[in-house]
Write a structure and sequence with these properties.
Layout: E1 2-7, E2 20-25, H1 34-50, E3 54-57, H2 62-74, E4 78-80, E5 90-92, E6 106-108, H3 113-116, E7 121-122, H4 125-136, E8 144-152, E9 161-167, H5 170-179, E10 181-182, H6 184-191, E11 196-202, E12 223-227, E13 232-236, H7 241-244, H8 247-263, E14 266-268, E15 270-276, E16 282-288, H9 295-299, E17 309-314, E18 318-322, E19 328-331, E20 336-340, H10 350-355, E21 361-363, E22 366-367, E23 373-374, E24 386-387, E25 393-394, E26 408-412, E27 429-430, E28 433-437, E29 447-449, H11 453-461, E30 464-466, E31 478-480, H12 493-505, E32 514-518, H13 538-548, E33 554-557, E34 560-563, H14 577-583, H15 588-603, H16 611-627
Parallel strand pairs: 2-3, 3-8, 5-21, 6-7, 6-12, 9-11, 11-13, 16-28, 28-32
Antiparallel strand pairs: 1-2, 4-5, 8-9, 8-10, 12-13, 14-18, 15-16, 15-17, 18-19, 19-27, 20-26, 21-26, 22-23, 24-25, 29-32, 30-31, 33-34
Bound molecules: oxalic acid (OXD) and manganese (II) ion.
Manganese (II) ion binds near residues 269 and 316.
Length: about 625
């Protein structure tokens, strides 16, 4: 171990010069160059502030990863699962209060409040920096600070971006190693002068000398702060993946959406799949769905119609850029899946179940007596005895879930049995279709085709789910989630809508992906789901693909283009004609009320919604009135 000479922390508010102190650094990467100097001095600056006991530069090797996991098991932070059932896999149990993203404590610290917009918490950057200095001062005392260089997208790829996360959480390091490409190839790019995003994470639980640690350290005070102008993220107080794997929501969506705005591309909360028809023709589909709308299931779809195949490219995030050919090209910038476990089972998503055969980090699921894991929905029947996510004995009569509803699996994308062979191709794939979906009991048909790009952007901007079940067919209060980006857009969403319109202007009209809205969740007047969903959603994709191939006509309606129901491939399932009629019913009066709600929603953007979208709303009303 080398001893690095670095400096003691500044005390917040004091002008005292930092004092040099000794700190163990186990190894520093052997690169030179100006970029390396900038990286080293940033690491020193963070260490000076946070005061870790040790610094470990992560090299991304398998041996290092195994040593970290072994160390976490030895320290009682994670449990090694029975290798007979789940080789190379582990269970982490979080603090019971640290189980989800903390949207209320997530901030965009842009110079101008207006640039954060009404959907984000804004923080004045200078004041926020001072506040963060206070909370991060000494926050890593007694712990190891890991330096994790990572790439989103293939290392050095034309659509890729790189970053460095420093963290005092080994759980964050092993998770980052699954979710991103971590290693010295990235450090080398930095040394050679590549731009990189700076991200800092601390669980906010310094250890005094001799103080005993807890398995999941965290702090009641939490911050997830983004500085969009300087491309920095600071996350404090939480070890939960969405707050601690900073490459994911913080970088790949909030910060990347700002980079995309400035460079002319899109960072989207979208899955990415390749659909292959019975003739072997391949189409690429990106789809945005709010949480709990079956996004992972669609990403790993097994079509129920013969001859069709789906290859998975990504399950959560897509970076999408106009190419010189006038098409949109997309990559999945991640390298793994951080998916919700409950509801993932043989009947709902057999691909995910197969993906999780081993080499998986589970968080907050239940433990079986045989050393394997379980969660609600994995099997139809619960095992007789389990240890629940909080470590307590559990039986099916316990009256509470065994796994936390937001329990997670973290697993390499490459382990998915239907992953596309070229899933990490640096140039990505050309998009043919963009889908927007929500969970709507009422109004929104199973599928609607946008009439053009601007109408598609309008559909994306109005994605919503009912707050109430609305089972009786009344329009419930709508929870808006435009483009499924509500908590993830790093700038004013009004400007973001405009950016979508401007990206469309860079595409060749005959090569732009076609946009569709889908809704698997419409209910009949008796409250039943009208559509079987899951693998049968392939029937909707089949219609979409025949539609874009010019094989079927559509029916014009006031809200967009609908299928002739006889064009849907319903072989092998029984959806009565009456249900089909309800699935595609457009009630002008109800849609006019929905248009009023859209107007109210647009008004929250203080005049920032582009005129083209206001015009879409006016045209919609005009068509609905004409249809009344
Ligand atoms: C996620 C989310 O964790 O969207 O992917 O919340
Ligand atoms: Mn997501």
């Amino acid at each position: 171990m080398a001893i690095a000479e670095i400096f003691s922390p500044r005390t917040a508010g004091s002008n005292e010069a930092p004092r040099p102190i000794a700190r163990a650094v186990d190894r520093t990467p052997d690169f030179s160059g100006e970029g390396m100097q900038a990286l080293r001095s940033w690491v020193d600056e963070i260490a000076t502030l946070t005061q870790p006991a040790r610094i470990h530069w992560v090299d991304g090797s398998r041996a290092e990863n195994e040593a970290l996991l072994r160390g976490m098991v030895d320290e009682g932070r994670i449990i090694k699962l029975n290798p007979e059932w789940r080789p190379g896999s582990y269970l982490a149990r979080s603090h019971p209060a640290d189980v989800a993203r903390t949207e209320g404590r997530t901030f965009i610290a842009s110079e101008r409040e207006e640039d954060a917009g009404p959907t984000n918490n804004w923080a004045e950057p200078t004041a926020m920096r001072a506040e963060l200095e206070g909370v991060f001062a000494g926050s890593m005392r007694g712990r190891t600070m890991y330096v994790v260089p990572f790439s989103m997208g293939a290392v050095g790829g034309p659509l890729s971006h790189i970053g460095v996360q420093v963290t005092d959480s080994a759980y964050a390091v092993v998770s980052m190693s699954i979710m991103t490409r971590v290693g010295e190839a990235v450090t080398e790019l930095i040394a050679d002068g590549a731009d990189w995003v700076r991200t800092v994470h601390s669980v906010g639980a310094p250890l005094a000398p001799g103080q005993e640690d807890v398995p999941w350290p965290c702090n009641d005070t939490k911050y997830v702060v983004h500085f969009p102008e300087t491309l920095e993220v600071f996350s404090y107080g939480s070890g939960y993946g969405g707050n601690a794997i900073l490459a994911k929501k913080c970088f790949a969506l909030r910060i990347a959406s700002v980079i995309g705005r400035d460079q002319g591309w899109l960072a989207e909360h979208m899955l990415l799949i390749r659909v292959i028809d019975p003739q072997g023709r391949a189409y690429h589909v990106a789809a945005a769905f709010p949480s709990a709308c079956g996004k992972t299931n669609l990403a790993m779809l097994r079509p129920t119609i013969p001859g069709w195949r789906v290859e998975t490219l990504g399950d959560d995030i897509a970076w999408i850029r106009p190419g010189e050919d006038g098409r949109l090209w997309a990559i999945n910038p991640e390298a793994g899946f951080f998916g919700v476990a409950p509801g993932t089972g043989e009947s709902t998503n057999v691909t995910a179940v197969e993906t999780l055969w081993g080499n998986t980090i589970f968080t907050n699921v239940a433990l079986r007596p045989d050393g394997d894991v379980w969660w609600e929905g994995l099997t139809d029947e619960a095992p007789a005895n389990l240890t629940d996510w909080e470590g307590n004995a559990w039986t099916p009569d316990s009256g509470r879930p065994a796994a936390h509803p937001n329990s997670r699996f973290t697993v390499a994308a490459a382990q998915c049995p239907q992953i596309a062979e070229d899933w990490d191709a640096p140039q990505g794939v050309p998009l043919d279709v963009i889908l927007f979906g929500g969970r709507r009991a009422t109004n929104v048909p199973l599928v609607v085709e946008a009439t053009d790009w601007a109408h598609g952007v309008f559909l994306g901007s109005t994605i919503s789910s009912e707050r109430t079940a609305a089972a009786e067919g009344t329009l419930g209060e709508l929870r808006r989630d435009p483009f499924a980006m509500l908590p993830f857009c790093g700038y004013n969403m009004g400007d973001y809508f405009g950016h979508w319109l401007s990206v469309g202007n860079k595409l060749r009209f005959d090569r732009a992906p076609r946009i569709f809205q889908v809704n698997w969740f419409r209910r009949g007047s008796d409250g039943r789901f009208l559509w079987p969903g899951f693998g049968d959603n392939s029937r909707v994709i089949d219609w979409i693909i025949r539609r874009i191939s010019g094989e079927v006509d559509a029916v014009e309606s006031p809200i967009g283009r609908l299928p002739h129901t006889e064009d849907l491939n319903l072989d092998g399932i029984d959806v009565p004609q009456a249900d089909l009629d309800e699935l595609f019913a457009v009630d002008p009066a109800s849609w006019l009320r929905e248009a009023d709600l859209t107007e109210e929603f647009y008004a929250t953007f203080n005049g920032k919604v582009p005129a083209a979208l206001q015009a879409e709303l006016s045209s919609l009303r005009y068509r609905l009135k004409a249809a009344q």
